[in-house]
UniProtKB/TrEMBL annotation:
ATP binds at G130, S131, N132, G133, K134, T135, T136. Cell wall formation. Catalyzes the addition of glutamate to the nucleotide precursor UDP-N-acetylmuramoyl-L-alanine (UMA). Belongs to the MurCDEF family. This is UDP-N-acetylmuramoylalanine--D-glutamate ligase. It comes from the Bacteria. The lineage of its organism: Bacteria, Pseudomonadati, Bacteroidota, Sphingobacteriia, Sphingobacteriales. Its EC number is 6.3.2.9. It catalyses: UDP-N-acetyl-alpha-D-muramoyl-L-alanine + D-glutamate + ATP = UDP-N-acetyl-alpha-D-muramoyl-L-alanyl-D-glutamate + ADP + phosphate + H(+). The gene is murD. The keyword RNA-binding does not apply. NCBIfam families: murD. It comes from Mucilaginibacter panaciglaebae.
Length: 465
């Protein structure tokens, strides 16, 4: 039987979206999503209580105080939270957190900010999920639709919170980056155009270390879709195809592939992306794409199908695919010094992301790897490392697993514990024509605040060379 995370109490589900105004809504987590949800809930007439187990960032605290919204930090007052008719929780809070267990024991519905905000907008929703490429593809779709003149918002796991934009803007459509954690707490929310890029092992600690549980979370993006909706997916991704075998879909299906011919959807023919929908046809050489590399062909295909489903003009789509600039910290070109290129891919926090980065490299690479290892299986990197990597610079407190994985494949592996030292070491190991690639395959919080901090310190160190 397919795994269905979250609520099992049917009364909880039936109570969703039926809370009377003036009722207490508790919001756990005072980050971007929590603060946005608090503002929207107050606007809709709810009694709002925000609780964060840790310290709240000053700018978020200032917003909540300005709006006269009740806030506590550095701990949870259970009585205040359990008085709520509904709880909106941050995606980062796991189900095993004690406060979540107590909320569920009391039968109080727990939902995401996305679920809550969706009640108060009739905008068309384009939702993107997948283990890798979500942010790039979400940003590319937004760029294409914005260039086409659509009145469109960008939210989810990127930018301003969906709830805050629903409260303050009047967009006709939204492009939402949806993580598995967000999808877990979504029930009635409907995505009009759903994109599933791929499913590879990630965050398995949140899914009982079972791949089928993680996959089930990703497929929640298709729940509630109807016959006039669209589901876009990668026909080359084994886990996606496996997951589709025991599921039924109401929406129109649009696969994309670089390995096989696709009748309706997108495929690769003579190095041209070819997109066919019932009313539309589009072709573009992969050499003209702004985003290069095999993984970015997939991202461009998925984005192009969205554009053609919406019947955007071919010249608008072609111009957007050719001129898009990638997001910060995702294969971001930093500069060239002494003929050595420096690329910041700090957002690569798992092995799959680093594989995609290496796959796109066309020169010899000095690879900066390391950080907080989430149980990484480095085996999938070995062939690319043998082909392309001349040296590895470890950036982390514990680098032993990297040494063990690659000591037979790379002649030089060195240890560093700061971005500055890593950049200096990589610079001295590289020669003219090489690329220094920061693509850590690990989380960042052993030495940095987050992946952005790691990427920014890397860029600053490059500029100091």
């Amino acid at each position: 039987m397919a795994y269905e995370p979250r609520m099992t109490n049917k009364n909880e589900i039936s109570n969703l979206n039926h809370s009377p105004k003036g009722s207490r809504i508790a919001i756990l987590g005072a980050g971007e999503s929590g603060v946005g949800a608090a503002y929207l809930a107050q606007q809709q007439g709810y009694d709002v209580f925000v609780s964060d187990f840790g310290a709240v960032a000053p700018h978020y605290k200032d917003h909540l105080l300005k709006w006269n919204i009740s806030l506590e930090e550095n701990g949870h007052t259970e009585a205040e939270i359990l008085a709520a008719v509904e709880v909106i929780k941050s995606p980062g809070i796991p189900d095993k957190a004690p406060i979540i267990k107590k909320i569920r024991e009391k039968g109080i519905p727990v939902i995401s900010e996305i679920e809550f905000a969706g009640r108060y907008t009739n905008a068309k929703i384009i939702g993107i999920t997948g283990s890798n490429g979500k942010t790039t593809t979400t940003s590319l779709i937004y760029f294409i639709l914005k260039n086409a003149g659509l009145n469109i918002g960008l939210a989810g796991n990127i930018g301003k919170s969906f709830a805050y934009q629903v409260a303050t803007e009047n967009f006709d459509s939204y492009v939402l980056e949806l993580s598995s954690f967000m999808l877990d707490d979504m029930y009635r929310f409907k995505v009009d155009i759903a994109v599933l890029l791929n499913i590879t092992p990630d965050h398995l600690d949140r899914y009982d270390y079972k791949m089928e549980n993680y996959a089930a979370s990703k497929f929640r993006i298709t729940q509630n879709q109807r016959a006039d909706d669209v589901f876009i997916y990668c026909a080359d991704d084994m886990e996606t195809i496996k997951g589709m075998e025991d599921r039924s879909f109401n929406a129109k299906l649009y696969p994309f592939s670089i390995e096989k011919k696709v009748t309706t959807g997108a495929d690769l023919e003579n190095d041209n992306i070819v997109i066919n929908t019932p009313q539309e046809h589009f072709e573009m050489s992969i050499t003209e794409l702004a985003l290069q590399g095999k993984h970015n062909i997939y991202n461009s295909m998925a984005s192009g199908i969205v554009a053609k489903v919406l019947e955007l003009r071919n010249d608008t789509l072609r111009d957007s695919l050719a001129t898009f600039k990638n997001i910060e910290h995702r294969l971001e070109f930093v500069g060239k010094i002494s003929g050595i290129s420096f690329i910041n891919d700090s957002k690569a926090t798992n092995v799959n992301s680093t594989w995609y980065a290496l796959e796109s490299m066309t020169s010899d690479v000095v690879l900066i790897l390391g950080g907080v290892d989430k149980g990484n299986d480095y085996l999938m990197l070995r062939d690319l490392v043998k082909q392309k990597v001349k040296a590895i610079v470890c950036l982390g407190r514990d680098n032993q697993r990297i040494h063990d994985a690659f000591e037979d494949d790379v002649d030089i592996i060195v240890n560093t514990t700061s971005a500055s030292d890593a950049v200096q070491a990589a610079y001295h190991l590289a020669t003219k024509g090489d690329t220094v690639l920061l693509s850590p395959a690990c989380a960042s919080f052993d030495l940095f605040k987050n992946y952005e901090d790691r990427g920014n310190q890397f860029k600053a160190a490059v500029k100091e060379l």
